[in-house]
């Protein structure tokens, strides 16, 4: 009988761990929103590493921008402006399996003092892929 009780306890522990891990997974849309928030935070903090770790190795942006050129573009903006402000005005994400599309708009501003010297509103479309339970930005188009 002692072996039987041990098997039941092991089975119950396994089931409990499975249920706890299932409860801790966040919905895909929320995971993508967290990635977007981290990208925005990285831009506002002038931390290109925080942004780049959320981009796919095969990232493509508008105007033939690849991952390496994205790093260079951010570095140029970070050097040109003391402060970078990125504010998302809205976003909507549609998830289909391991792919997702986010559409939205953002206000981009660069400033050295209190008031921005540059600024514009851009329409964004982001294409996401889920790899090993992590959502990475594959492609970003902006107008």
Please give a handful of descriptors for the protein shown.
143 residues; alpha+beta; 6-stranded mixed β-sheet; 6 strands; 41% helix; globular
Quick synopsis:
The protein is of the alpha+beta class and 143 residues long.
The helix-strand sequence is HHHEEHEEEE
Major sheet size, sense and barrel closure: 6 strands, mixed
The end-to-end distance, rounded to whole angstroms, is 70 Å
Q: Which class in CATH terms?
A: Alpha Beta
Structural class label: alpha+beta
In the residues, how many domains can be counted?
1
CATH architecture: Roll
Global mean pLDDT: 87
**What is the overall shape?**
globular
Q: State the share of residues found in helices, binned by percent.
A: 40-55%
Radius of gyration: 21 Å
Q: Can you tell me the residue ranges where pLDDT is under 50 for at least 5 consecutive residues?
A: none
Keywords: Signal
InterPro entries: NTF2-like_dom_sf (IPR032710)
Signal peptide: 1-24
Protein name: DUF4440 domain-containing protein
Describe it:
This protein has one domain: Roll (Nuclear Transport Factor 2, Chain: A). Helices cover 41% and strands 41% of the residues. The longest helix is centred in the first third of the chain and has 23 residues. The model has no long low-confidence stretch (mean pLDDT 87).
Question: What topology emerges from the helices and strands here?
Answer:
Blueprint: H1 2-24, H2 28-44, H3 48-52, E1 55-61, E2 65-66, H4 67-80, E3 83-96, E4 99-111, E5 118-131, E6 134-142
Parallel strand pairs: 1-6
Antiparallel strand pairs: 1-2, 3-4, 4-5, 5-6
